Prior knowledge:
This protein is mainly alpha-helical. The protein is 69% helix and 0% strand. The radius of gyration is 19 Å and the shape is globular.
Amino acid sequence: MIKEKETSKALIYFLVGWVLLNVLQAIGTGLFHDEGLYWMFSTQPDWGYFDHPPMIGWLIALTSSWLPGELGVRLPFILMSAGSIFFLWKLTQPKDEILFFTLISAMSILHLGGFFAAPDVPLIFLISLLLWVYRKYYYQDSIFLAVCLGLILGLMGLTKYHSAIFAIAVGLSNLKLYSRWTFYTGLVIAGLIIAPHIYWQFQNDFVTFDFHLFNRRGAQPFSWSYPLEYLLGQLLVYGPLVSLVVIPAAIKYFSDLHYDCAMKYSFYTILVFFLIMSFRGRVEANWTAAAFVPMVY
């Protein structure tokens, strides 16, 4: 079992500054068009929407009902962004905190996610939380930890469908999990949480799945520009300079800790999956957001 360091004062100061800075950005920046759409979702909370699971609408509804303006839309995402950094720190246990803060501050996806209301923000938060809990569960078979994993997995499923790829990759990284009865308890809990959304899909002719799998882009002839745009987009979404260092470092990383297989499997699976998808049509750069946490790790 890896012994975690106590939370440092430097981390607390960094997180307070991060939240305050992003509150100012949230107040001083008008909503982008995607955020306007998500705000509309929040005015009619439901178990699903035409092109998204329900979490994005629920989160905005939590605060926009009592806190007016852009901050009311963005506050949950500001707090979750800070939470992602906290659990990333817990996961990495950095010996050099200045290097950790510099790396975090240089990554584009976390900058925008610091105040932007988008599904990628709670997804990254939940993945960082999941991997932190999973590490504990890896070393200690516990019904409590299994239940926590199930709750987090269920919430991930209500946040973004790409989380399924991440969950499958982590599951395949350690086949010994399937010999634990507690593991199946977690899976049942995750299924129960996602079930109302699946029922909503059934009631609405699986409209979201149909849209994303078959009708999102329409019929597109193959173009080499799609995979090239995908590869370039990965450099931009994580930061045009820092990506040239971090992505190769993540690929070269080797560890004799079996737990780290979850990081490797999820990192490669997500990037390769969407690379393959880019031969089918245009892939948006942020679709690989689930790879962010294992990449930083």
